[in-house]
Amino acid sequence: MIDIVNGGDGPRAEIDASWTVNEVVARHPETLSLFAELGIDACCGGAKSLAEVARRHGGGDPTQLVATLRGAILAPENPNVRAEY
After folding, report:
1. What is the pLDDT of residue 72?
2. Could you give the count of Cα atoms lying within 13 Å of 12 in the half-sphere of its Cβ?
3. Structural domain of residue 54, as residue ranges?
4. What is the pTM of this model?
């Protein structure tokens, strides 16, 4: 699991590749627009794990998808995060 704490009281991004898209969106709603930009269905496909989604959409590297989502959570105003995955 990735557990990053930024500055003690700052944003926290805990994401694991076994989490479903729905779990990520429920805990971190700011990721919804990133899922849409990546073409990942957060509605009907929301029950799929990040690992499964990565295999289908990004060539099979869930670590990179998790890192991109983490970046969107920790720095939502940074548009360069979207280019990482």
Report:
1. 86
2. 7
3. 2-84
4. 0.76
